[in-house]
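Hi L., both proteins are below.
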Amino acid sequence: MNLINRELSWLSFNERVLQEAMDPTVPLTERMRFLGIYSNNLDEFFRVRVANLKRIIEVKNDKVLGYKGTAEELYVEIRKVVMRQQQLFETAYADIKDAFQKDGIQLIDENGCTSAELNELNHFFHDKLKHIIFPILLDKKRPLPKLRDYAIYLGIKIQTRTKVRYALIQIPTEYSRFYILQKEQRTKVILVDDIIRLHLREIFALLHVQHIEAFTFKFTRDAELDLDDDLSLSFFEKIEKSLKQRKKGLPVRFVYDEQMPSDLLDFILQQIQLKKGVNTIPGGRYHNFKDFMRFPDFGNPAYRFAKQDPVAHPELLNCKSLIAKIIQKDILLHFPYQQFDHVVDLLREASLDAKVKEIKINIYRVAKNSEVMNALLACIFNGKQVTVVFELQARFDEENNLWWSNRLKEFGANVIYGLQNLKVHSKLLQIRRISDGKTQYITYIGTGNFNEATATVYTDLGLLTADKDISLEVSRVFGMLENNLERHTFRNLLVSPFNTRRKLMALIDNEIKFAKAKKPAHIQLKINNLTDIKLIEKLYAASKAGVQIELIIRGICCLKPGVKGLSENITAISIVDRYLEHARFLICANNGQPTYYISSADWMERNLDQRIEVGTLIKDPAIQQQINLIFDYQWRGSVKARSISADYKNAYSKRNLPPFHAQQELFNHYKIASEEITQ
C-alpha cells in the first residue's frame, strides 16, 4: 500500500503537539498550553473526522485508503492510538506538575488544603460559585438534559440512608478554572472542579448524604452542519438553522475519569445512548484540558516563551503612504515575525484616500473584535464602496461570521455569502483607485486569514502588489464570486477549482521532463496537509524520474517518503513549535529559472476541487530570495523538525545537521533586517 491513512497521519501530527508538552526545554506554562492545544485538537478531530467515519460505517463499511482494514477496524485502531496517547498525556501532565512543585508551585486537589486555605475557598465558593451552579438529580424516569459538548461535567454518586442517587453539575465557565492560593513564598493552584467537590455535601444537604463523590466527564458531538433543503430559506437562514441543530448532534466520544464507579458510568452512558467500549475513553481525574491553554504563568516570564514582538517590514517602517510604496514595488509580509498591523493600516489609509473608490475582500475567519472589520466600517463611513465575500461555513466560526456580516450590511457594505457547495477559502483584498483618470489596483493575496489574533501565532505569507496582470486576475476572481462563477482564464493565479490542479500537475511534469533529460530537477513544497491521491502519485512519478523533492508538511501527510523504487528521492519533515506553521508555497527549479507560488490551498482534494482557493506567481526576484531563505531556514531546522514516515514514530529530524532552531532564527533575521533600517 503506497499511502498513509489520513486519520492516523492526523493523530501522528497531534502527537507531535504532545511532544512539545513533554519537551523539558519548553517553558512550563507553555507545556501546559500544548496539553491544551492537543486536547482541543482531539476534540475537533472527533467532532469532525471520527463523526464522518461513523457515518461511513453506518452506510457502507468498506476498506479505507491507506489502511489495511475496514472503516470499522480503522475506528477501533483510532481508539487504540488515542488510548496510547492518553497515557503519554497523563505522564506529561504529571511531569509538568512535578517541575512546578520544584519551583514552589503546587497543583493540589481538595485534599491538599490547609484550614486557612479551606476558609479562603469557602468564601470564594459562597461569593462567586454557589449561585452559578445548578445541580441536576438524575433518575430513569426523567430524561437527561441536553449536554453541551464544549462543557465539562461532574457525575456525582450520592449514598443516602436509604438508596443511591445520581446527579450532575456542569463546571461553570464564568471564572478561570484555576484558583491561585498565595501565601508568602508558597503558591498553590486548585481547579474549580475540586472547589466544587469540597462543597458537595453542602450542595446536596437536603438529601441527608452519608457518602458523596464526583467524577469528571465530557463528551463530543458530531459537528457536521446539515443544511436544510428548503428552497424558501436563504443560505444565511440555512446556516443559522443548522448551527442550532449542531448542538443536538449525536455523541461520538465519551471521556471519563477511569475511577468512576461502574454503576454511575453505566447510568450516564445509558442516558446519552452510548455503549461502553469503542465510543468511551477512560482517562485521568481532569478533562477539557483545552482550558489549560490559559494556564497562569504566576508573573514569572521564565514560564513563557521569550517575548518576540513582530517587527515592521523594512520597506514599510515609518512609511507615510503604504499605497505609494506598494505601487513602487511588491512586498511580502511574513507573519507573525512581521506586523499584521500593516494590513490594517493599509485599509485605514484606503478609507482616507480620496482616490480610493472601492475595496473588496473575502473573509473566512476574523477575530471577534476585528480591527480589519472595523477598518472596513471606516471605509464605508468615508464613502467608499465596500464589498465583502463572507464564508458562512468556516467551521466553528460560523456564528462570528454571521454577526460581522450583519453588522457590515447594516452600515451599507455589499455583503456576498459563499456558495453552499463551494467554500470560499481564498485570502484576497483589493483596493481600486482612480489616479489621473487611470484605474490602479492595490492587491493582497495571502495564505492565512485576515485575523490579527491568529496572526500572532500562525506563520503566514501575504503578497502586497500593484502588478497589473495579477491584479486584473484577482479582480476577475471577485467578479466570478459576484456573478455566479462565470469562467475566466488565469495565467498568473492558481484558482481552485478551475486551474490549480492542472497547473500543479504541469509544474511537476516539467520537473520530470528535466530529470529525464539528465538536467537538475528539484521541487520544494511547504504546506499544511498532503492528501490528494493524484498529486501524490505524480510526486511518486517525479521521484522515480530522479526529481529531488523536499516537503515541509505540518499536519497530515498521506505520502510515504523514502521508499525504495517509489519515493526514495522524497524527504518529508514536519515542524511543530511555538508558532503554528500555516504558510503554503511551492518552488520548482525549472532548469535554473525557478518558479515560485504562494497559495491559500493545501494539496487536498477539497482545496483543489471543492473550494475557491487562490495562489499567485511570485515575480519579484527579491521576494523569491525571501522565500528561498524561509525554506532554507526551515529545511535546516534540526531542533523542532520531525521526520514524516509510515511508522508514525515522529523521530526528531537531525539529518546530520548542527542544532538550528528555524523559527527562532527567522525571527532573529527579520529583527536584524528591521533594526538595520532604523540605524
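That was the first. Here is the second:
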Amino acid sequence: MLKEKKINTDILDKAIAFAVKAHSGTERKGKGLPYIVHPLEAVSIAAMMTNDQELLAAAALHDVVEDTEITIEEIRKEFGNRIASLVETESEEKIEGRGEDTWHERKEKAIKKLFMASREAKIVALGDKLSNIRAIFHDYQKIGDKLWDRFHTKNPFDHEWHYRMLVEALSELEGYGPYSEFKELTDRVFLQACRQFRHKSEGNRHFLCGSLTGKDILPFLLSLNPNEKHILDFSMAGDISFSGMRALIKAKEHGIKFVIVNAKPIPAKKLATSGLGSLISITSKPLEIELEDGWEKSGDGFTAVTYNNSDGDSLLKLYSDFIPVENIEHEKNIGLAAVKSGINTPLSGLLVTCRGKNGIIFELIKDKVSIARAVSQQPEKIEHYAKIFADECKKLHSTPCDKSVFPNVKDIYREIIRKSKNFTENEKKKITNFLESVKDEDTYIHGDLHPGNLIMANGETLFIDMADLCYGSHLIDLGATFFCLNCSDDELSNKLFHSPSATMRKFWSIFSSYYFGADTQEKQKEVNKMMMPYAALKTLFFGELHQMEPQMKHFIQENLIKQNI
C-alpha cells in the first residue's frame, strides 16, 4: 500500500480554527446551520482549483472581516500580508445606512474591485460565490420566490444583475469546473426567477423586466408614440426569446423609434449574435470606474474631458453633464457601426460611469494630433493641413451609407424643428421649407465636421466624435464647418481649435478652395454666401442642444428664415 504524501497544512488549520471561533454562534442565513459550513465549503471549492495553502486559508477567512468584529489588521498580524490582502479583496466595503438602502452601492463597489483583482483573489471569490449560488438554487427549488425575502433586496432582478456581473468578473477562471458550475447555476436560477414580464415607464424611458417574449412586448412596443424616440432599458430583462427579437423588428417596421440600453449579458449576446445589433442601437450596463485606477487627464473639450490610461491602450472620454446619457450610448453604437462600414475611427469599448459622470472607453490612438492642434503648432503648414482635411471630408462625403443603421440628417432636423420652443410656427415652416429644398444624398456626413474632429497618427487619419454620423447632403455637414470656423470669437476659437479666429477663417478659405475649387476671391465669396443658410441650420442644432442665445436666434433669422419670406 502506497503511503500518502504529507503536506504542511499548518496555515490552513490555523485559519479554519480562527474562522470557527470568529463565526461561533452565528447561523447561515435561512439554513438553520452553523455559519462555518459556508467558509468550509468555500475552501473545498477553492481546493478544486489550487493546492496553495494560503489561498485556501483566505477562503476559510473570507467572511471574517465583513461579518464579525475582526479587523483586517488582526488578520494581517495573524496570517501575513498575502492572506490579509486576499481577504480584504473579498470583503465588501462597509457603508453607513440600512442594508437595503446601501445594497446596490456595496455590490457595485465589490464587483468593480473583483474585475480588477488578481487571479488568486478570484479563486478565493469563486469559492464564496459558488457556495452562495448553490444554496440559492437548492432553496429556490423548495420555496420559490419566498427565498428573496431573506435578503436585503427582495427584487430577484437585482440579484440576477449581481450574479450576472459576477459571472463576467470571474470569467478569467473559465475552464475550471467550479466556474462552469457557477455559470450554469446562475443561468438556471434566474431563468426561472425572472421569467415574468412587466414594464414601467418614466417619460420616454421604458424599463422592461423579466423574460421578453413576442406576445408580451409587441403590444407594448406598438402602443408607443411613433413621433418620439424611446429608450428601452433592459437592466431588469433577464432573457429575450426569438419571438421577442422578432417583436423588436416588427416594432421598427411600424415606425417605432427606439434604442436598447443597459442590456445584461444573456439578452445582449442573443441580440448581437442574431444580427439585430446592425439594425438596433444596443448597449450594455455601464461599469463604474475610478480615475485613480491609472487614468491621467489628457484633454479638455467643450463636451467632454479625456484621460489616458497607464496601460497605454485605453482612452476614457467623460462627458459634460448637459450631454444626455442616451446620446453617449448612441455615440458608442454609432462608432461601432462606423467601423463596420469601413470608416476609420477609434474602436469603442465599455460604457462607464465615473464620479457621477458618464463616459466611454475608447482605443487610445498613440502620438495623435488633431488637424486643429497641428495648425496651432505649425501655422506655417496651414495649407498642408487644410488640404488633408479637405481630402478626408470629400472621401467621407462620397462613401455610401448603410441607411438601415444610420439616420437621415433631415429626420434629425425635422425633430429639432418640431420640438423647438424658440420659434413661431410660421418661422418653423420657413426653416422646414429650406430643409426640404436641400438635395437628398445617400452618403455619409459627420454631423459635427470641423478640424478638431479629424486626428492624425502614424501616417493615417481618423474621424472622432461620431455621435452625429448620419447620411444626407454634404452641404449640411459643411455648414457646421463654416459655422465653427467663421462665427467664433477669439475666446471660443482658442478653446475649440487652439488658434485665434483669424487663423481659423484662413483655414476655411484654404480648405474650401480645395473642397469646392474656390480658387479665386469671387468664387470664395460665392461659396461663403451659399454656406450661410447651412451654417444657420447647424446653429439651430447647436442652440437647441444647449440653450438658445439671442445672437444664435438672430443668426438663424437673418440667414435662414428671412431668406424664405
